[in-house]
Design goal:
heterodimer, A: 774 residues, alpha+beta, Multidrug efflux transporter AcrB transmembrane fold, 9% strand, elongated, B: 203 residues, globular, disordered N terminus, signal (chain B)
Chain lengths: 774, 203
């Protein structure tokens, strides 16, 4: 390698041209790929596919996408029966292109269809309570009670068509499970604690995924509609809920984060370079290598993942701080020694350490690549390719671009030398180490561990309050805990559901759960059984009515040639309204149904319910993710301890000739930087989580460079210190700015890196060779 | 089932009407709560179109301001109903009671809430929900109140509800939308306070 750089200029030119072609190719690829790629803003997609559930992933994705498409509004007109604003909102939503379907209006036609279907399938879909009553002989007295009741509204017509009153019975029993929602004036309504009436309108978005621009457009349109509504009916209240609102908020926050952090770190870097180099060209050069780095990173991520996650982008801004190091090292070398050596010689002097620096950083990121988190894989991919892009730009192009760069000697020489001399004193080393150890000790005592994935998401107070209010009014559970029942075919799924319901009923009776909700559809097998049961018991009931002289003249039982209801028919009918979202069938027949559970008393016992039953599983995604976070946090900390041991052993081995004390001392920067990282989390009341662990990996990967550069006997120490100082400063700047992020997890990530890298930089001179100065 | 939800709130109000002077709605309402307890026997005839004879039933009822309504049909089959503003319990024959709670099953309690609002609240609410027609008969002791529901869901089921009373409520006639009709006649009114035994009936 040395030979190439000192002698063979031709090879270098070829390399430069080749790199130019590659960059051009990447540019074309970027122009081709970017418009097609999607910006992902969902927090859940940062997390691994739940591998520990047996539920087919396609089904889970299907449910997730459906959930993402739901929007809910509650409207409270000034007067409870003023339907104008509700109608207005409904009509306007219906007209929007981005809305697939609006629900909440149960008009005359809907109710008629509903009644017709309920009647047509009354035997097939008879509710379990009614069926039990028919079997144990208590259905007849109930029919009598309806007949004798002056307020039942029962007519001869109904009795003629449905002598067993099964439609009526099923309907009444279903009503008693309907929660807090009622149909009022044809609209779905709920009452809050102050007895105000809220009208509920919910809608599904058209399409399945939205890029940032689309969702922004939708939100803008909805905001305008809300404003118009408020203008026309100033006293009408409207509250909303939906994943879209959150993801739009998250992406606009992230956009803010990116522009703030990105522009501030670029600004800081520009100022720093101007101050040190006193020239514009180094700025352009560093910006060039950063831009190419970012280009490489983005193309790699988009090409490999087909999308880029918003959190990846935010965290990727921090790559700038590392990518710039290669440029800085080279430019510093040129600035200090531009008069004595050629551009090639400078590169030659640095190449070895640059490669080491790149390698240590890459190794740290490669470790991230092996975590199962898609978000981190993206970040690592971005970093690996981004850093390589910046690195190759420096080694291939810089030698051609740095001609006549102004040379400045002895910049801050006095301070740098003073700093190094200071660190050579034992007293300085001991005092600093003691102070840092104290700081670490204080910080560690306050360190808390928290694996909650909620930290990944900033909940905007306003949206969160609206959501809480909607939950309170509709009394819908927000636990997001449900059983999922699945099977190869719809029929198998339904049969599994039917087998599981008795277990749920038992759990309810035992007080394990408050309530549960299932779809109102049976398997074909169960439907046929229902018909058979009714055929068996109907004659006795009819006899009973006859004995009391109550048989209508034209009574029609119609128990023969009944068509069974398939899931598809159910979905298309009005009786699935409000429950159709609980059912999902894929084209290959695989099907699943959700059973939302509310008021869970004991989650561990609950998951035992489905253990051993094939095709049934409790889903508690949040808990699963928290567990996974914890698992990987522990996993990574073991990995980290292992890495630290290796690193310390290497340092001790390298310094074995300088005596044991020196050898042990050389491990201090690494150990202290880890300690300081953790301590700063404790002191700032941030909790230790998976993200802190990931940041620690980077602290080691990057922090080691400083010790390496300063202990490198081949380079001049003050020059190395200047380059290291600038590198550390830019890295600190870009990681430090992550603290400004609105996402808690990113703040913690930034804090760990800032604390760790600062400490690594601070203690790096402890490793300088004792005898070498100036 | 819904029938009793309504009765619960009409009865407490109506039974306590005492002396019939030339009466106004205000006065009628004012007198609603005069007796804390009223007992009566009832006979009910339900005329359903297409049935050749009315469905005849009889029983006893107690209405208490504190405890709510206890309604027991004795013939032709036993049916007991207990209710207050929080819950309703229906027992058919020897079967386990069927309980509906207002906070858990608001949809089934809709009648209750509406009628409670009407009869516990002022004249304005009453007039908002029903078209009212209050009149004295020739005999100044008797009065008649006709309620014609204006809104869903009441107007879907009832054509009108007619209450006739003197010192007590004597008769309720319910005209259904489908021209079916129910006549309930109350006799043997008593207004003594509840005995301990009677209180347990409401449990």
């Amino acid at each position: 390698m040395k030979n190439i750089y000192s002698i063979n200029c031709d090879t270098l030119k070829k390399a430069a041209v080749l790199w130019g072609l590659i960059v051009l190719g990447l540019l074309v690829l970027a122009i081709y790929l970017l418009p097609k790629s999607k910006l992902n803003t969902s927090v859940l997609s940062l997390l691994p596919q739940t591998q520990n559930t047996a539920v087919p992933a396609e089904l889970m994705t299907g449910f997730q996408e459906r959930l993402d498409k739901q929007l809910v509004w509650l409207i409270k007109p000034k007067l409870s029966d003023d339907l104008e604003p509700v109608k207005w909102w409904y009509d306007n939503l219906t007209q929007q292109k981005f809305i697939e379907k609006v629900n909440g209006l149960m008009d005359q036609q809907f109710q008629q269809e509903w009644a017709k279907t309920a009647y047509q399938y009354r035997y097939q879909l008879i509710d379990t309570d009614t069926l039990t009553k028919i079997k144990n002989g208590t259905h007849l007295p109930w029919i009598l009670s309806q007949l004798y009741s002056p307020f039942s509204g029962l007519t001869m017509n109904e009795l003629n068509h449905d002598p067993l009153l099964i439609t009526r019975s099923t309907q009444l029993n279903q009503l008693s499970h309907s929660g807090n929602l009622t149909v009022n004036n044809h609209w779905l309504t709920a009452k809050d604690e102050q007895n105000n009436t809220w009208y509920m309108i919910y809608a599904q978005l058209q399409g399945s995924s939205f890029n940032m621009q689309q969702s922004q457009q939708i939100i803008k349109q909805l905001d305008e509609l809300t404003l118009l509504l408020k203008q026309q009916w100033p006293d009408t209240e409207i509250i909303k809920r939906g994943v879209l609102f959150y993801s739009d908020y998250a992406s606009s926050q992230a956009k803010n984060d990116i522009s703030t952090i990105g522009s501030l770190s670029i600004l800081g870097i520009v100022i720093l370079i101007l101050v040190i180099f006193r020239s514009i060209r180094p700025i352009l050069l560093t910006l060039l290598s950063i831009s190419i780095g970012i280009l490489c990173g983005i193309v790699a991520v988009v090409a490999l993942f087909g999308e880029i996650h918003i959190i990846t982008l935010v965290m990727s801004t921090s790559i700038i701080g590392i990518a710039i190091d290669y440029a800085l090292h080279y430019l510093t070398e040129r600035m200090l020694h531009g008069n004595q050596e050629t551009a090639w010689q400078s590169l030659n002097n640095l190449l070895y350490t640059l490669i080491i620096a790149l390698t240590t950083s890459l190794i740290a990121y490669v470790i991230l690549l092996f975590t199962p988190f898609p978000g981190l894989k993206q970040l690592a991919t971005f970093a690996i390719f981004g850093l390589m892009g910046a690195f190759f730009t420096v080694i291939c192009w810089y030698p051609f671009l740095v001609n006549n760069l102004p040379v400045r000697l002895n910049i801050g020489e006095r301070y740098l030398t003073g700093w190094l001399t200071l660190w050579q004193k034992n007293s300085m080393q001991i005092i600093m180490t003691l102070m840092m150890t104290t700081f670490i000790a204080i910080g560690l005592t306050q360190l808390k561990i928290d694996d909650d994935i909620g930290q990944l998401q900033t909940l905007p107070t306003d949206l969160y309050q609206q959501e809480q209010k909607i939950i309170a009014i509709t009394k819908q559970s927000h636990d997001q805990k449900w059983f999922v029942v699945y099977g190869q075919t719809p029929e198998q799924t339904l049969q599994r559901l039917e087998a599981f319901i008795p277990i749920l009923n038992q759990a309810k009776q035992d007080g394990l759960i408050g309530s549960y909700q299932t779809i109102n559809l049976f398997s074909l097998q169960q439907q046929q059984q229902n018909i058979d049961t009714i055929k068996q018991y109907a004659p006795a009931i009819i006899d009973g009515l006859e004995n009391m002289g109550l048989t209508p003249e034209n009574s029609r039982l119609n128990l023969n040639e009944l068509a069974l209801m398939t899931p598809q028919q159910w979905l298309n009918s009005s009786i699935s309204e409000g429950r159709n979202l609980l059912w999902l069938s894929l084209t290959d027949g695989q099907s699943a149904t959700l059973i939302p559970i509310s008021d869970i008393k004991n989650i561990t016992k609950l998951s035992d319910l489905s253990s051993g039953i094939s095709g049934v599983q409790l889903l508690d995604r949040r808990q699963e993710f928290n567990d996974m976070f914890m698992h990987y946090r522990i996993h990574l900390s073991e990995l980290l301890v292992f890495a630290i041991i290796i690193i310390c052993a290497t340092f001790i081995y390298r310094n074995r000739n300088n005596g044991l004390f020196m050898a042990i001392k050389s491990t201090l920067p690494t150990l202290l930087s880890i300690g300081a990282s953790l301590a700063i989390l404790g002191i700032t009341q941030q909790s230790l989580n998976l993200f802190s662990m990931l940041a620690l990996i980077l602290v080691i990967g990057i922090g080691i460079d400083y010790s390496l550069f300063l202990s490198n006997t081949k380079s001049q120490t003050t020059g190395a210190l200047l380059a290291v100082s600038m590198a550390a400063l830019t890295t600190l700047l870009s990681f430090g700015l992550l603290v400004l992020s609105h996402t808690n997890a990113i703040v913690g990530f930034g804090l760990v890196l800032t604390g760790g890298i600062f400490t690594a930089y601070l203690f790096a001179p402890i490793c300088q060779p004792q005898n070498k100065q100036h | 089932m819904k029938n009793f939800l309504i009765l619960c709130f009409i009865l407490p109000s109506i039974f306590f009407v005492s002396n019939g002077q030339a009466i106004t709605l205000d006065e009628l309402q004012q007198k609603f709560s005069q007796y804390p307890v009223t007992r009566a026997n009832f006979t009910q005839d339900r005329y359903i179109q297409g049935m050749n004879k009315p469905l005849h039933s009889t029983g006893r009822m107690i209405i208490s301001q504190h405890h709510g309504l206890w309604w027991q049909q004795l013939t032709p089959f036993a049916l007991t109903l207990k209710m207050n503003d929080q819950r309703m319990q229906q027992i058919i024959g020897q079967q386990p009671p069927q309980i509906i709670r207002a906070d858990e099953q608001p949809q089934l309690f809709q009648f209750n809430t509406l009628l409670a609002a009407i009869f516990n609240a002022d004249k304005i609410t009453l007039e908002k929900n029903f078209q009212l027609n209050l009149s004295d008969s020739d005999n100044a002791q008797k009065w008649q109140l006709i309620l014609i529901p204006k809104m869903a869901p009441l107007n879907k089921i009832f054509h009108k509800i007619t209450l006739i009373g003197d010192q007590y409520l004597l008769q309720i006639t319910i005209d259904d939308k489908q021209n079916d009709k129910t006549l309930i006649v109350f006799t043997d009114h008593q207004t003594l306070p509840l005995t301990e035994n009677e209180k347990h009936l409401f449990d």
